[in-house]
Amino acid sequence: MKISVETIQPEHYEPAKQVVKDAFSGIKFTDGDEHNLIGRLRQLDDYQSNFEVVALNENSEVVGHGMLTQVEVRMNGHKETILALAPLAVHPDYQGQLIGSQIIEELEARATIQRFPAISILGDPTFYSRFGYVAADNFNILSTLPVELVNNMIKPLWDGSLAKVSGKIYYPNAFFH
User: Fold this and answer.
1) How far is residue 37's CA from residue 77's CA, in Å, rounded to a whole number?
2) Residue 151: how many CA atoms within 13 Å on its side-chain side?
3) DSSP one-letter string for 90-113
4) Could you tell me whether strands 141-143 and 167-170 are parallel, antiparallel, or unpaired per DSSP bridges?
5) Average pLDDT of the chain?
6) How many structural domains is the chain composed of?
7) Which of 29, 38, 125, 143 has the smallest count of CB within 10 Å of its CB?
């Protein structure tokens, strides 16, 4: 099966919303609002469409979605802007075919080109550790969202990119519905 990962276009908004809703349906650790979150994140002043991608199948149907949003790591008056992956979703009928991997790789490449130091993820360590994500508390970085330490993960995008970064991750208000 041929999949392409492309920057989202307005005609993808509704199909992407449905893919996210379907992907998170019945998942244990979810508030069930991820599909609405993507719309709220698009309204942010610092939203960049190049950090929102869809995976399209050979019929140009949306089968996956991924989005990076700017967040801040703050401590003692110092702040560093990094990116958060939220949400990453693949339609249940297409899961297990490495589509999520393709989305992550594309978003990481785009973030690296724009010189963001790291990507934060709140997710399953079994899945995300395959891509080099580690517990964020290894870097003394904690989430301000109520999540288990093991699920607060981060990936530095180049050697030493988090050498002088620690503190708490603060998310835009759009995360709090």
Assistant:
1) 28
2) 10
3) E-GGGTTSSHHHHHHHHHHHHHHH
4) parallel
5) 94
6) 1
7) 29
Amino acid at 28: K
Residue 101 domain boundaries? 4-175
pLDDT digits (tens, 9 = 90+) for 7-41: 999 999 999 999 999 998 877 666 668 998 999 99
According to DSSP, the β-strands at 62-75 and 152-156 are unpaired
DSSP codes of every residue in 1-41:
---EEEE--GGGHHHHHHHHHHHHTT-SS--S-HHHHHHHH
Cα dihedral 116→121→127→130 (10° resolution)? 20
Return the CATH number at 100. Answer: 3.40.630.30
| H/E segment holding residue 152 | strand 152-156
Q: What is the DSSP letter of 127?
A: H
Burial class (CB in 10 A: 0-12, 13-18, 19+), 14: exposed
